[in-house]
Amino acid sequence: xxxxxxxxxxxxxxxxxxxxMDRHQRDEFGRPLPAGPTRALRWFGWLLIPLALxxxxxxxGTGFGLVAWTGHLSLASALVxxxxxCRNRRRAARR
Length: 95
Description:
95 residues, 4 helices, mainly alpha
């Protein structure tokens, strides 16, 4: 249960950080977002990533929670990267 929650929080955080970049905004929305929503996405992303750490520590203990959080951090960033890459390649193949 804790692993799924930590991974979900981190996936949301990295997705927000990715969508706060102009390039990914153009890819996903067809245009860059205004400054306000972009700033909110960036802040929300940077808020979610460290928020997952106490969740992991509370659910798994200090030692294993830190290790699990680090592993989930790597996995979440790789999954968001792979999702963006696959989506762009699929979109390019349709053209």
